[in-house]
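dude i think i finally got it to work??
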Amino acid sequence: MDIGLIGGTGDIGKGFAIRWGKNHRINVGSREEERAKRAAKRYREKLEKKDFSYCDIEGYKNSEAIRESDVVILSLPFEVITDTLDSLKKHFSDQIVISPVVPMYKSEGVFECRPKCAAKVIRNYLPNSIDLVSAFHSVPAGKLADLNKSLNCDVVVCGDNENAKEVVFELIQDINGLRPLEGGSLEVSTLCESLTPLLLNIAIRNDIEDPSIKFMDNK
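look at this
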């Protein structure tokens, strides 16, 4: 599958690239093509050091990364998402878009959620032909980007199109240690987005590194 990472040079973009780069074609996107190419080169080298001799990771401007991809991940902070999508929406056609975006901010050393749902805001900036899926809010970016660390957490998936969610389920299962869980419609995304600042605040207040969420069945 061709996967585009919009804003793919940050920690979470790096994590997606190196975790999926073993099995998929990764199109790392950035506003600056050279920056994306440098990041893609670093990601390839990181996988090669782990003896993954074949990995198809290339760098592009964000617009080209979208056009080259079947699935697009919005690896961007909430503050820039509307301006970015406003400038890029003409490049979308029929891709599945995944949003791990969280409307949070830091105040006096702790994280807080804005009274908005990122997925709903993003939906308004995408063409109607695009299927939007919300996911990955409880996956620690630093751990995702470190191949020396194993993952063991759940990913709640929200969206209105079942076929699109099935594709996202498969991509989550491609990352060892992640389990996808059905969350419901896109309306539920606001609850999932609030998990990110919750986990970050728990990490700060309890000196816990890379906390995540695992749902247990106590039958």
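The chain has one domain: 2-206.
im so relieved honestly
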